[in-house]
Design a protein that fits this description.
The structure is a homodimer of 156-residue chains.
Chain A lengths: L8 H14 L6 H12 L5 E2 H11 L5 H13 L3 E4 L7 E4 L8 E5 L5 E4 L2 H13 L3 E12 L1 H8 L1
Parallel strand pairs in A: 4-6
Antiparallel strand pairs in A: 1-3, 2-3, 4-5
Helix pairs in contact in A: 2-4, 3-4
Bound molecules: manganese (II) ion (MN) (2 copies) and zinc ion (2 copies).
Chain A binds a DNA duplex (30 and 30 nucleotides) through helix 2 and helix 4.
DNA sequence: GTAATATTGATATTGAATTTCAATTTGTGA
DNA sequence: TCACAAATTGAAATTCAATATCAATATTAC
């Protein structure tokens, strides 16, 4: 299905339900609960562990493996991105709208992450791919450094 | 020390020796052996395991931990890059000359890796950083997709 | 409802990265 | 050359996130 910009939750739910139907998977309480928690999670780029801890408060019986598998499912049906910022644990974030793409500035001081999308960069990436006869499916651009407040602290 | 473009091995060796002196580390046979093997390694982007296996043939007594630690040392003194292409194992490659930087096209079909450097992309990255008041120290751009021969195979 | 199939969650396993530690090697300076 | 302090080595143990296992349970199609 087509997700419009700033996909409301109901549309996401529909997309998930369609995927479950298509793949002959099953709707479960757990998937609903994790769905709600994930798409309402206040922070960006949550780890499995973080989401699991949050979920356990309301649902002490939920298992880590289920959270892990459900986030993989969201990724599979393109409702979530999996990210790896080099700290050795995968992070997940909702896809904001169908086909969305963005990249990241990552502060190595405080861990702050800023998202951006730059058309020029995308354009030149495509050029590089073409030049090398590559069919690019996705890409990852991460800028590592210090955010303004960490720069200030360091200058002192 | 300043490395000139296409740093010859002797210059790299000097740089390493200087770093060892500065940090009050010690010169060892093992470090020399690993140095030789790493900077002469025929493939790009070698894993610790791969280099270790190669080294063991001539030096059965060398330990995995030593190879691991020595590659970290090369990284520390900026003679090597550590890469992570998403297959769960770190890879190392020689820095070609001081301050060198390049990015990667990665074939998810056959694992082929093509290196590139694109000044425009670097330039726009800097712009993005500036816009967000970020002091960027390094960045990583990876384009994932299919190389020409894998595209051909898939089209059949 | 029944049967087939998928899911769950506790637990075990995997595998790369990293640490530990006793034995050894190296650099320093008398 | 010698002795001491400090760093290094290599085998083995540990860590830790990711993933697999599997019996019990839940869901779906008929
Ligand atoms: Mn993001
Ligand atoms: Mn490279
Ligand atoms: Zn910061
Ligand atoms: Zn290929």
């Amino acid at each position: 299905m087509q997700l419009s910009k700033a996909t409301p939750k109901s549309e996401r739910k529909k997309a998930l339900d369609e995927y479950i139907l298509k793949k002959r998977l099953k709707s479960t309480k757990q998937r609903d609960i994790i769905f709600d928690e994930f798409f309402n999670y206040p922070g960006q780029h949550v780890t499995v562990e973080e989401l699991y801890e949050k979920l356990k408060k309301q649902n002490p019986k939920i298992g880590y493996a289920t959270v892990y598998r459900t986030l993989k499912l969201f990724k599979e049906c393109r409702l979530a991105f999996e990210r790896n910022f080099g700290d050795g644990r995968a992070r997940y974030e909702p896809v904001k709208f169908e086909g969305e793409h963005h990249d990241h500035l990552i502060c190595i001081g405080c861990g702050r992450i800023i998202e951006f999308a730059n058309l020029r960069i995308e354009q030149y990436s495509r050029e590089v791919a073409k030049l090398n006869d590559f069919e690019v499916l996705n890409h990852k651009l991460e800028l590592y450094g210090y955010c303004s407040s960490c720069t200030r602290k360091r200058d002192k």
